Batch of 2 targets.
Target 1
Amino acid sequence: MKNLPDQYGHFDIFGGRYAAETLMPALLELEEAYDKAKKDKSFAKEFDWYRREYAGRPTPLYFARRMTNALGGAKIYLKREDLNHTGSHKINNTLGQALLARRMGKKKVIAETGAGQHGVATATVAALFGMECKIFMGEEDIRRQEPNVFRMKILGAEVVPVKSGTSTLKDAMNEAMRYWVGSVRDTFYIIGTTAGPHPYPVMVRNFQSVIGLELKKQIHKTESRNPDALVACVGGGSNAMGTFYAFRNDKKVAMFGVEAAGHGMNTKEHSASISGGKVGVLHGNKTYLLQDEHGQVRDAYSIAAGLDYPGVGPEHAYLAQTGRATYVTVTDAEAVDAFSFLSRKEGIIPALESSHAIAYAMKIAPAMKKNKIIVICLSGRGDKDAQTIIETM
Amino acid sequence: MGRIGRKFESLHAKNEKALIVYLTAGDPSLAITKQLILGLEKSGADILEIGVPFSDPTADGPVIQAASQRALKTGTTLQGVLNLVADIRRMSEIPIVLFGYFNPIFAYGVEKFAKTAEKAGVDGVLVVDLPPEEAPELRIHTDAAGLDFISLVAPTTGGDRLKTILKDATGFLYYISITGVTGTAAPKTADIAREIGKIRKLTKMPIAVGFGISNAEQAKEIGAIADGIVIGSAVVKLINENRNSDDLTEIVCKYIKNIKKPLV
Ligand SMILES: Cc1ncc(COP(=O)(O)O)c(C=O)c1O
């Protein structure tokens, strides 16, 4: 595969830097600082130290025996990102960006959040490095992910409620970008997924690529080979890119990105931008978008707040276009079933986001031979979703 | 030279400064937008910036965000705005700039947009989220159609970048007076004067200043250092406050006359 993105952040037609002029100098400064840090061994060392000593990496690659037996097909492994400090893969990225912010001398950070996992992971590193922190969160998400709102506040962050649109992740990102336009001189914007203007998609992907690198080593230790399939849920796409990236040149490894079908792909209430959207420009990059015929962005919907986003990272758009990865969908109902299934079969309560990946693996595993291997990225734990699940019961 | 260039020349000859008025198309309706535009021309507006509403206006403050939402609710589309311009062109020669975000244009089709806009009588386009790095995909078509591509310069824009922007700018240069989204802070005249001084050393292009100007006092101060001023959120707010009044056009026109006074 070509080494992408190009110098302007393009993955073929996708990606780029569609940003207001006020932000352009900051994006260029960020790119320069990131390129420098990437080449600096002391940055890698520092990052590695925090991942190990603070976040608890490496995370286990767990063989889900009871789940495998119950489905009766391929062997299923779970990459336990839920066991990271703060309970999801989001800390992999926020540690990287906060270390970069520190190098750049920025003492204030902001972030958008949907499920609150990225908000918590940002508030956490802000506390760790003594930075001032503001988190933008849609009012609907504040309601349905209340435990995470408390966590952010306990960590000393200010949670700014966002009322526009459907009061979910897209609106939180709009508001964070507006705030950043006004505070760009001293504030670092920690974007939580592989979206946004260049260099965010590539930077976040690289910070998350530890997931795939680790699991490759781990599976080679236990099974002496690559897995046959990788499955990860796709909101903006950071846990999926992190899972896929180390395998991009291993053509025999199938990659499945699972988008949220919400109430069903035959309704308008879903968040499947690749499976149900068209190419467009939002939040600084060109990608697949849920939009109407006039280019107005449509509201996304998913029971999983972290997937409730009408766009998707541009590198996923590219992987979909080239066919290197396959994008599929899972409904709310299927995700809720998978949530219960994993909880009861393995004693692991998955995040509703991750439950989409579990649900897809449950669809394909039974038809696969017993010597085949599926690795699912279990991107986060589900404590935060208890309220939502109780409401559906 | 197009209508925009000619307008700045004629104003310059009279030692007048341009008053550029922004309004969101379709707020409260396209019919009223038309009525307002025709009234504004008679009240001293020199150039019009017609906002094409977008669902996610990330460079706009609360006033224009809300106006965009209202305009979308009443069904305003890019095609509707282009039709409006064609309609106005039958009655007026006022220079018109379409102001907005890239996605509606991209969805319409960049080539079709450039051709239709030119035919409708649009003079320039200003696309907030299309910096020089990404502009070529639209400019191939808008340049070919003879439309001005209005470039933005921000207080954060540094020296080398400024030169790149100036190299390809057409029509006039839009200097963003505040480090922030539209209508959210008052500009500081001394800072702006210093920045404009730097830009003038590099270009002869007319410079308009906007994003935070809301009253005649500011218009006077900034008009003294720039070639034009843009007033937006304040007008949009006034339109909304008087949306149900029979005197809406008169109220807005009176306000604009007052802003124009110190610029003459
Ligand atoms: C546990 C978990 N998984 C997945 C996601 C989706 O994000 P991404 O696609 O960037 O991994 C989120 C987002 O909030 C999350 O909290």
Target 2
Amino acid sequence: MPTRCYLMAILAACSIALPLNAQASLKLPETVKVNPAALNSEPICDPKISPSWRKAQVIEGVKIRESKVCDPDNPALIAAAVKGTNNISMATLMETDLSPDTIIKTDDIDGDGDPDRITIKLEVIELNGRTPDFEGLIPTFDIAPGIQPGAWVFAPKTSGMSTENFESIRANSLLRLPSPVIRVEVGDIVQIVLENTHYLPHTIHLHGVDHPFTHADGHVAGGDGVPQTSEMFLMPGESRVYEFQPRQTGTMLYHCHVQTHTHLAMGLVGMIIIEENRPNNWLQTLNVGGGHVRYPSVAIQEEFDEEFDLHFHAMDKELHEIIQKYNDPRLIARDMNRLYDITDSTEDYFILNGMSFPYTLRESIIFAEPDQKIKLRVANSASEMLALHTHGHKATITHYDGVEHNPAAQITRDVYALAPAQRLDLTLNTTNDGLHSYGEGIWLFHDHREKGITTDGMNPGGNVSAIVYKKYLNEIGLPKGMGVDVSKYFTQEFHARKLPIWQDLDESGSLGAPGVRSGIDPETQETVTNLLIGFVFGLLIYLIIAKKQQVRGAMTGALTKLRGSKGSKAND
Amino acid sequence: MRSPSLEAQKGVKPMIKQLFTILICMTAFGSHAFAQDSADHSQHETMQHDAHEHDDDAHEHDDHDHDTDHDDHTDHSAHDHSEHDMDHSAHDHSKHEMDHSDHDHSGMTHGDGHMMDAPGDHSMLHGEDDAHAHHHGDHHHHHDGHLMDHEGTHIMGQNFDKLPSSCTSISEEIEITVRGGTKYAKKFPGVTFAFDQQEWRVKPCSRITWHFINEDNIRHQFMMHGLPRYLYNLGMFHLENTGPRKVSGTMIVPAADETYLVHCDISQHMENGMKAQLVVGNGGEDIPSIPGLTPYVINDKYEAEDLPQVPDTDNGKEKDSLTKQVTDFFNDNVPIAGISFVGLLFGLVCAPLFVRMIALRKRKPEEDTV
Ligand SMILES: [Cu+2]
Ligand SMILES: [Cu+2]
């Protein structure tokens, strides 16, 4: 009978399959190695940046210092920032992509050899935003390979396209996180002109900088930047002048004060530094991207060997995704103003000068030599505390929020706590005395809240960078002699969690990613077995019901046989 | 046993209902799309209308411009006295003259130009003066046809006389004034920036002089792509204004029927409406996502929100409650009149047919099995 044949076949298969599986499960799966050739590797230094930019050079009469980092600032840009876009040749200007009116420097009012009327034009630029034309973001700015949180920045007023060119969707190099560091002198008549090129209202609040509360007409002139108290919202297409004449020095902040809980976090925050008034003190008015200052002020040059601007920030992924979800500004306003709840937020991305590890190695290392005095200006614009730690060094806190701390009471330590919006000036002394420095090396500096050294929870990432002594810098400005090859961090796959970074720790790849078992894993095995048992029972029941007659016949036959045999026995 | 026909009858009622809803939905959807289409059309028409009216509007524009002027002047008096005169004599006479004669003060402001150069720094500006000489003299290309001046205008890919290989002569000479700014976006909900027109049509091989007037106090661009690269560097023709003023440039379009993208490339300006197309001859494929003109490739999802509303008023007077209730009911529940009634009639005629068909089909299989 065919049914019986089937049954037999199934039972036989089961009995063979089960022990086979059991045997396969004795051996654990092999390690699966990701072949480096399968990765989208990026060059460690940005290939679009000319190595000649690193050299000390003179442009437009501006003596620009050597930069030892792998991605230095464009020297033409520094020349423009020092002289003003109005005082340089058109050829130099066109190498910067700045607008001809971005930095206007005129009038030596106090007759000390430097201009005292400074006009700085800032635009509001969206990075990694949405487009109705294709799935994807524009213009793109990676904080780490493939990591593109939506952001807004104050950007120096530029000229031409917002992308590198028509074929590229990558942002023009001036359009980036963080908002640029601004430097002006005590006594300068400063005008920051905010041109709202964005689709939402914004303002500028000068945090810690000596400025008037309000001007007569809140439409034309800006004051404290608070729409509820000092002025109107600056709407799309409008511009406003924030004029001030600072009387005190210090490391300060500027940020948007419209819906500050979201707008500041989106990136509309930058450092502004008021320098001492000195003769012939032409300042590098903008330090785009922060980091090494290639044209420090007179006062800083007198006292320090190098100066670095370190702007720390953090981002909640959910907030930064909003501008990537909608094109209509009304929907973005709805989500940002009414649906997003900052009290439920968590920080996911931790950036130093707009970037996370490994890009911090490209442009935000502190390069040093023994017996130097280095000025670090540190700002924290995240919404939580920053616990900045320097390996191998104890630096001295000289200023809190721009105000000098009593020299006799200044504290030297290795974890520097910065409350949100707080600024510290640190003096990093590289004298190898076991206190200030433990000697030459590649010494990390990073947030010591451990999430700060991750990117969306994955390490290494976040705001990690390093103090690197010259001896440990290779010819392209990268730290050499690091324990492991850093190139694997310069891949999108690493940040997409697809690269088991421990696969190469030893020859056998003992901590790589496991593959899957050959055969069936125990859970599936059990499920299959149960399924088969159920199936067999099902078949049996069907057979019993469908062939009731035959079964009954067989039963009665069997019974009679039994009875017959009993009877015969009894009869015996 | 139940007769199959009885069962079929029982099933008929809910089925009619379902059919009805489906039909109504279908017709409603169809007529809705139709409505959208016609709305777009009307918008388009008004746009063109606007264009025609532009000259008459000139006065109004001037008034407006006055305002911006004023703002700038206050700026000015605040801190720029010293260079004011110097500037004029020092460098930009020719430019100013041109602006004045060319466009009756609609160039709006002389803007930041006044603030530009510090005393004693004129040597720095030589390069730029050269550029000006070229510009106003024989209009030859500077570098790669890239003109930028300290006044804040920027012209790229200008072409006065080089004929595209597909053209034997210039078909016509035209001047087109394009205005750009936030105010032109007001007629498009959810859009922030726009040009005053979203489409221009020209004959093949025409020589166009574009006058781009920026009416915002920020930077805007008029950037055209896809032009032949042997004539236009990177295939681009580009006018840019760092603020509220006019910039003009001339170019020649090729003979082929083609539609060219025109946009402002400042981050989110094109994405938020500053996008248009130039149609040469019969044109090519439409450029997507132009406000009021072509559909977006990727659309946002809109969900109704339960927001507090003030009761509707009709010319200030409240409608009497009955009319209001009736109109509200129709407004809320009957999306579009006309065409949906046709659909309804069609549905009514067809419904019995459908029902019979379904009943038949239902009966068949049942007959088969039994
Ligand atoms: Cu803002
Ligand atoms: Cu624009």
